[in-house]
């Protein structure tokens, strides 16, 4: 049924490259099928104004799509002078999700900014960004410990994300662009390794989706995210 | 448990005033507890560039918060020169939801723009906007039929929205601002009168939420939205 | 002569609703005929940078038109990313006028911001804004006294505003939109209760206006503003 | 009483240089005392969108202050990315005033844009702009006739402008910057050669101004503008 | 003398990867030492407004630096709402240089846009962009020929660029970031394979540079660019 | 060969008027042929954030073109809300060049901003700006000494600039607009009085330029700049 011969519950292959660039405190290239996102974590020793004096750190994120990451070229947001609503929505989602992975109190007066820049987009870029960014975040936290900026890592748990949907009437996992463009329902789910839910964002693109379909999609996501977190840990144990 | 003595499953009172202003083709003031949103529907006889020549209409939405709709004053977005990410995210949600209520093919070469301006914000403004905007949309469609612009209304179904959440460990329905600010999980749900799901957006603000909590919240939303649609229909049958 | 059967010197009915919203320190809905403006006064305990260290307070104003306040929809200024020249000009006028009502030295290190948001526009919105904003300002000053932020109200005098014009060759008072659109001359006048002039802004839209016509318009404005101030005081004495 | 030894009714010397730059269809440097404004009129053979197909022309204006036209440097508006409210207000005034000088129907499908750029600012820059721009406008209209674009000049009348005010309790004419900064009332008046009024904009900076003071200021303006128009005509008759 | 043990005339190693991404008509990752730039060429079948109807094509370029391409994080230009002066200057240089490589008349009604996005910046990013972009451009032109959009490639010549400078008093070739930050003179040179000069941009950062130093730098550039063009051709002959 | 009968090596006449406006600490109108630029230097007693605490001063520049400085009107950059890439590039060049003329350490905690506003543009505006700005800079430094802000002038050397190019195959000096628009190569050179080079920016507009042509252009520039510096010194010795 799926153009790529995958079964409905089958996710795409994931490839994780740590230390992809030299300067960032955490730098991860994540490839999910043909989707490729570079996730760079930067540490600064200050916090945004609204947090000053509270002894809490902050984790934030920015998202961008290289103009030709997609099939046809998109206008460069810097040239347009504005990030689109879609971009703002995605980077808010990434940042919220990552904050769920960290004990901000234990982070102290530091901010970690994760830049997720999409080199190639074949569907699921926001989920790939979250999954990759979590690894870059861990590397940045490890760097902080190694530098003596923190006594121990304030990581609470790994998180990962996957998109699920209803495609030709069937719940499917990890949609590529061609599937996503035709899906009746599109849903992004962020979870922890123990199955706790962080974010769920689902939209009926055609008609509505039923309670049963929602449950089926949740189940697909649950399995896929478990596997993604295994991949994350495998990558993080190397070196 | 709730500051306002409501039971967990109890929604706030809803008051709907149609024809609130004189010029818009649909104009509804919706009050959900202390939250007040003015929803004005405007009809124009053209479609956005990306739809031209396809014989399809369009429904879009914009959202704004009067600067002093909230407890302390927010900077005016027009003065700041930019809509915030939160605003863009909300108006994208409202517009997507409303498009699910209409047969765009049957709308022909028309655009309906729904402005949701929050006069007073006590939590749940995006859900109140959707619920009120759907009524303004119906009035605009009726006006189009009365004007001979359409033979019959392209309305597919009524939709409404409610926020649910986990507050002090308990799933609760229709959070006010004080509850929302402290909720562990916050979720907005848009559904049709027959229980079809249009949108689900849930975020864990503290920790995570479990599958069981998700089911409990969905159940609360389902009941509340059924009641909201009864209120919508009551309002629309008057006159 | 006038479409609405008013005599040339006849102003429209005024309706003033105080405490229209719950959160602002002063909140007034003013209705002048079909023109409806919500005026919310917000108090903050700081002053703009250019006044720091001078022991003087500040009063400022912002003005906005809801997109469908008018017969056809206007683009939302926040979406456009810029306030129009007209908007900036109006809010500068409102703010200057209100500062004439207050002893800024006696206001101390506080800023009062008055948001005038037009719900429905049928001509004379800037004048209705000034007249309504002055009441919201008084309520905010009373609140400051009640809160112990000020010993006594620094109000110097009430001010109000009306538009006058030359319509079909005759000086008329308080033009509605239909008249304003066709008027040969359009003039906005802000005065105190004792007839002191604060602002006069007159424009010949067609041809020129004569000294005699100017005097006739001033006389109409003088009477109308006296009545407006009686209405303001009536509203302020209730509670 | 006046720092510059002028009597209250005395205006500053005016110097008008036509053909100040080589490329503009009308180019006038006007000097009013130490205030110097370059007024360049540009003719284009099209009209703004809102006028298309109406067989009417348009006259518009833009205003700018060179950053060091003033005693201390102002931020460059182009660098700031926005024209200030003051700039927009002034250029709207200049444009409205100039349109009163021209029969737009007779102008045909042409737009005349007048750029008023202040080289040095010693008070009264908006009035000097209007007075100078009217001459540049006449030169542009003459050029259009010479080029065969128009059969005869659509000029209806000359217009000129002056600022008047209340300074140390006395009505005075043509305030320089030092006077303007301390004036109790500040008023800009635009009139025709026959005494018809085009614009009046008066503001009480301190206290209020009385009806008698208004009449005195109008009288000063009336005389001053008559003289300005004599100067304009003298300049235009040269060559 | 050089931190990296290179001789003054020694350039860094160059690595060229064609078809780096899947969607662009030309896609090249160029690595010059630690500097890495992704150059994507996009073809569209239209030309900018100013060229319409002239039967000429256009080549343009955009440049961006990923926020953490550098040692410390730069603010994202899309978030800042503006491209910096440096960015605009660089992309103007890249585009001008590339247009020198193509016969625009023979390109017909097509635009080729080359996006140069810097993944990692260790000095010389604008020169690496030009050298890499020229290869992406050739691939895009080959694609156009293969697609039948052009009969033959309108390439006139290969171009490449290198930075040279005066570092510790000595003319050196292909500065890395550490050298560039301390160089007394910094110069970027774009040349053709036959030694024709396209662009020269040199700046004395400390003191001045002499005629003799200029000649020495030109000579270094000449040799380096010859080698770069050999590398370009080697890469293009593969496949 | 040249339309204006000049020989290839002949520069245009230069006219320098110091103290052109009254308020700036240095104010120079420079006329190079028909090109006229007003250069105003403003002194402030602070430095930009990135220099604070380093005991170094700063020299910066801004550039603008009056809308009708050119043959046809350009859109006003302040109205457009953005400076063009060309403007940013030019003002960066002017500022870099001027900083080469001053010992920034000896300037202390002061910033000198030089505004170069083009009144009339007939080619070579960036070079005329640099040549004129250097004189305004000297006047501002003299003013600082006279005011006791500096013990002695931190001027290191005079600098001046000229454009050279290849026009109809021949190297020519100081191109006017008509020549510049058709030149095959366009080059701007900034030098000191002793022949030290500060900036060289050359672009092949058609084809390429050769090493020999570069040398010929450099020689023309060298002579022309020597003469410009004689003119600068003559102007500065007056008074």
UniProtKB/TrEMBL annotation, chains A, B, C, D, E, F:
Transmembrane segments: none annotated. SUPFAM superfamilies: Ribonuclease PH domain 2-like, Ribosomal protein S5 domain 2-like. It catalyses: tRNA(n+1) + phosphate = tRNA(n) + a ribonucleoside 5'-diphosphate. Phosphate binds at residues 86, 124-126. Residues 10-140, 158-221 form the Exoribonuclease phosphorolytic domain. Belongs to the RNase PH family. PANTHER family: EXOSOME COMPLEX COMPONENT (PTHR11953), EXOSOME COMPLEX COMPONENT RRP41 (PTHR11953:SF0). This is Ribonuclease PH. It comes from Psychromonas aquatilis.
């Amino acid at each position: 049924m799926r153009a790529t011969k995958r079964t409905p519950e089958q996710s795409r292959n994931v490839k994780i490259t740590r230390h992809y660039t030299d300067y960032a405190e955490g730098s991860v290239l994540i490839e999910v099928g043909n989707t490729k996102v570079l996730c760079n974590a930067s540490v600064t020793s200050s916090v945004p104004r609204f947090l000053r004096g509270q002894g809490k750190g902050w984790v934030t994120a920015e998202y961008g799509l290289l103009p030709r990451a997609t099939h046809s070229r998109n206008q460069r947001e810097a040239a347009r002078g504005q990030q689109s609503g879609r971009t703002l929505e995605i980077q808010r989602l990434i940042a919220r999700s990552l904050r769920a992975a960290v004990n901000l109190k234990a982070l102290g007066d530091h901010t970690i900014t994760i830049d997720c820049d999409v080199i190639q987009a074949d569907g699921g870029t926001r989920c790939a960004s979250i999954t990759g960014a979590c690894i870059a975040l861990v590397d940045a936290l490890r760097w902080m410990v190694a530098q003596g900026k923190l006594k121990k890592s304030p990581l609470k748990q790994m998180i990962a994300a996957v998109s699920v949907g209803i495609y030709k009437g069937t719940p499917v996992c990890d949609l590529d662009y061609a599937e996503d463009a035709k899906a009746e329902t599109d849903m992004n789910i962020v979870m922890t390794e123990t199955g706790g839910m962080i974010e769920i964002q689902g939209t009926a693109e055609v008609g509505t989706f039923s309670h049963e379909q929602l449950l089926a999609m949740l189940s697909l996501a649950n399995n896929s995210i478990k596997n993604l977190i295994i991949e994350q840990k495998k990558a993080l144990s190397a070196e």
